Amino acid sequence: xxxxxxxxxxxxxxxxxxxxxxxxxxxxxxxxxxxxxxxxxxxxxxxxxxxxxxxxxxxxxxxxxxxxxxxxxxxxxxxxxxxxxxxxxxxxxxxxxxxxxxxxxxxxxxxxxxxxxxxxxxxxxxxxxxxxxxxxxxxxxxxxxxxxxxxxxxxxxxxxxxxxxxxxxxxxxxxxxxxxxxxxxxxxxxxxxxxxxxxxxxxxxxxxxxxxxxxxxxxxxxxxxxxxxxxxxxxxxxxxxxxxxxxxxxxxx
Length: 253
What we know:
- The structure is a single chain.
- The protein folds into 2 domains: 5-88, Arc Repressor Mutant, subunit A (Orthogonal Bundle), CATH 1.10.10.10; 93-248, no CATH class.
- Helix content is 72%, strand content 6%.
- The protein has 12 helices and 5 strands.
């Protein structure tokens, strides 16, 4: 929990200043909107908001602040972070998404991932529909455009869901970059699909679908500052929306 220096600094700032607004807190931390929200969510057991929406430490937060000053932080708060950090590093690619604040680097890479998937869909002649692929009767250009615009549509859907469920706004460009990068497993699938048997291809697609779901959750966490448990809910709703759309089209029964 407190291995991250940003969270320690939040506790220290609130302990020293008493109350602080989001803009001032973000300015002091020098982090993106989504990243600050993410850390605040992770510290939600120690922080409260008043009617003016300023943040302050609750009783547990005050105890934690005193513990930090005295160097007597409970070991459990530090130990719990190690497991989640490893999980994030290898499964959710958290170190990659932490770089979303450097959009001059992250955004071009994310757009390149979208083009990789668009070209792959055209090359393999399969039609992408978010998490799924189907044999296509469309032109190569049509398959490419569907891949590209599907993920743009997914971005708008995620924006709407984050607002409806959690009233989260801001961090739009970070979210777009993160979601675009999240398409990486599905963007590489068409190339694999062309060189392996159809039976094996189905299992590979299933693995890539699950991995993409986890990456979307990471993108939502760092783009909109949601805790991972909340971002996974949004990701699952997006998946269910995709399945419902395919059922209405008669592609899944």
